Amino acid sequence: MIQPFDTQPGIHAITSGYTGGHVVAPTYEQVLSHTTGHTEAVEIEFDPTVMPYEKLVEIYWQQTDPTDALGQFEDRGDNYRPVIFYSNDQQKKIAEKSRQKLQESGRFSEPIVTTIEPATVFYPAEEYHQAFYQKDPERYEDAHANRANFIKENW
Questions:
Q1: Which residue range forms the structural domain that includes residue 131?
Q2: Per the domain annotation, does 35 fall within a domain?
Q3: H-type helices in 115-155, by residue range?
Q4: Distance CA 1, CA 65 (A)
Q5: Which of 26, 61, 69, 126 has the greatest number of CB atoms lying within 10 Å of its CB?
Q6: How many Cα atoms sit within 13 Å of 128 on the Cβ side?
Q7: For residue 123, what are the contacts with CB-CB under 8 A and spacing of at least 6?
Q8: Total domains present in the chain
Q9: Is residue 6 part of a domain?
Q10: Which residues on adjacent β-strands are paired with residue 45?
Q11: Would residue 93 count as lying in a domain?
Q12: What is the CATH number of the domain that holds 104?
């Protein structure tokens, strides 16, 4: 999820990590075990005057299958579930309105299952997960071919 946001104006920093679970400072291996309750996520530091939250949500929708509650493309499991995190009531309203608009658009024949949840403690992932698409571009592209096809067909 870093790559689609990385070159956008108003984005100051993007960090891969884990959030929403009950284990303090989990490791990648712990999150993969499906016992921590954490979801893999990105934390985005942004300037809302340049990159409004509405635009971040719009970019997010174009990167995921919002109808798949059990993962994303080849990444399977509750730690890959689709979720939008918000930091305040205004962001929550924006995300909910956007989800409703997408559902009503008829773009997807199945229901939108992406949840909208309050942001909780965010734990940065290990260094080798940061900017993965830049560190190993061939592996990244191979792993995300299904995502690219989905985006092309649906957006």
A1: 2-140
A2: yes
A3: 132-135, 137-143, 145-154
A4: 13
A5: 26
A6: 3
A7: 17, 18, 19, 24, 25, 26, 38
A8: 1
A9: yes
A10: 13
A11: yes
A12: 3.30.1060.10
26: its two tokens: 């989990």
**H helices, E strands: number in the chain:** 7, 7
Nearest to 110 by CA among 154, 144, 63: 154
pLDDT digits (tens, 9 = 90+) for 71-130: 665 666 577 789 999 999 999 999 999 999 999 998 888 999 999 999 999 999 987 766
**Among 54, 56, 78, 82, residue whose Cα is nearest residue 150:** 82
pTM of the model: 0.79
Which has the higher per-residue pLDDT, 72 or 152?
72
DSSP at 83: E
Q: Do the Cβ atoms of 66 and 106 come closer than 8 Å?
A: no
**Does residue 89 lie in a domain region?**
yes
Q: Residue 139 carries which side chain, given as an amino acid letter?
A: R
The type of residue at 32 is: L
